From TrEMBL:
Name this protein carries in UniProt: OsmC-like protein
PANTHER family: OSMC-LIKE PROTEIN, PROTEIN INVOLVED IN RIMO-MEDIATED BETA-METHYLTHIOLATION OF RIBOSOMAL PROTEIN S12 YCAO
InterPro entries in the cross-refs: KH_dom-like_a/b, OsmC/Ohr_fam, OsmC/Ohrsf
Top-level taxon of the source organism: Bacteria
């Protein structure tokens, strides 16, 4: 479980899982201190890291020589009833086009994308 604690600065929050921590905030124009990741940046980071890790794991397990994976994620919320996650996935390595296409497919099946693709429900305990 992740815990989010306000820090006393207007909107700054400490985010921790009990072992790791990071700081979240909002931008100056919204009254924040711009002292950390914005909440939507963290959502984009969750998707991007999951995809990068999934590609690296698959490549490692299947002997595909991937040197690095870069995932850029932009969240488009300009349409009221729809959110679009735009991604650029760059895979570096001496790999064939078939391997590259396969790795792109692996990225789209990562657990975070699967979670975000399902109907969501929010419950306050």
């Amino acid at each position: 479980m992740v815990k989010v604690i306000t820090t006393g600065k207007p909107y700054s929050c400490l985010v921790t899982d009990g072992v790791h921590q990071l700081q979240a905030d909002t931008i100056l124009e919204y009254g924040g201190g711009n002292a950390g990741f914005r909440p939507h940046d963290l959502l984009a980071a969750a998707l991007g890291t999951c995809q990068a890790i999934s590609v690296r794991m698959y490549a490692s397990n299947h002997g595909i020589p991937v040197r690095s994976v870069t995932v850029e994620v932009e969240i488009d919320r300009t349409t009221q009833d729809k959110t679009v996650f735009r991604k650029i996935i760059s895979i570096e390595g001496d790999i064939s086009e078939d391997e590259r296409k396969n790795l792109y497919n692996v990225a789209t099946t990562c657990p975070v994308q699967q979670t975000l693709s399902q109907q969501l429900e929010f419950v306050i305990a």
